[in-house]
Amino acid sequence: VFGDSIVDPGNNNNLHTQIKANHPPYGKDFDGHVATGRFSNGLVPSDLVAQKLHVKKLVAPWLNVDHTPEDLLTGVSFASGATGYDPLTPKIVSVITLEQQLEYFDEYRRKLVAIAGEEEAERIIDGAFFFVCAGSDDVANTYFTTPFRILEYDIPSYVDLLLVGVDKFLRSVSARGAKLIGFVGLPPIGCVPSQRTVGGGLHRRCEPKRNYAAQLYNSRVQVLIDGLNAEPGFNTRVVYLGIYDIIRELAEGGERWGFTETTRGCCGTGLIEVTNLCDSRFMAVCQDVSKHVFFDSFHPTQRAYKIIVDNMWDTYGHLLQP
Question: Residue 302: inside a domain, yes or no?
């Protein structure tokens, strides 16, 4: 697994960064109520995807864990909360770049060879599912929150910058022997609680520019993926996994699934608190997490994640068969 906080099970825990979830209330519904560093009240999509594939219940982080041989044979996550395809994105918040995640994969492969032998390691990687989820932080944080890019780039040209990063990253993963990559598109970033708060006016409506950026990126990245898949000599099948529509439905009509709060997180006011600002030592946490689509102002609850991953599987599962 490669990407950002949606699929980071704790790689950021020992970094010098504010972007961490290894403190309560994160993990409040995890086994043993442990704040592992997952940015949710429980499981995150990487765990749920591993369960869908009948591989295992939890995907361990690459860092901060003593892996068993079983962990390595079945796969790990290299993801780092708040990273992105724009090289500036991880720099601003001091997290792990996607390039560094690929270097960690190279280390991982060497360890896999050490325990299983070259031939078996090759067979495992050959039959593995590579899951890639990033891009939200590029749009929400780097483009719309900091001054570094918005002054130089309009939305279409910033999307082009991200696509350069995506193309480079997918080619690098392919070159490392991946045969099947699931590539997650962007959610409706303007409907995430923190973005409603900063951009949605008094009524905290979904913010249209952020959603436009996400939709433009999604349509262009699908063209890019189709191009790669058709390219002679590109030996990997990349499957685009759209999450925009299901998250839009949850954020605007969550009552259908029994959610009563779709625009605020569970931390404090629910308007802006995330990572180090979402901390149960300093603020109240909502009583009934199961009624909330979002746990903090940026990340869904485990229950919402389950609905999102179920929808992803119902829609694209048939394309993920080897």
Answer: no
